[in-house]
User: What shape does this take?
Amino acid sequence: MTELPGTPGPALSSIWAELGAEAREALKAHLLADTSAEWLSTTLARHGHYVSATTIRTYRRALRQEGGISERAA
Assistant: This one.
């Protein structure tokens, strides 16, 4: 099973744990790409998974500092 890189916070970890394999891959692709954090947060909320855009940006910033994703995925 694929895991999220780095150390996601409790909100992202909880969402990750609730998703099936296919949904996890879709979420991972959006988290690690240049998808808008606001769009991703809103889309997840529509499906009952609540995480703020700030949390997504913080996670991406931590990954960039660790060298896990490119600067474009801000």
Notes: The chain is about 60% helix and 0% strand.
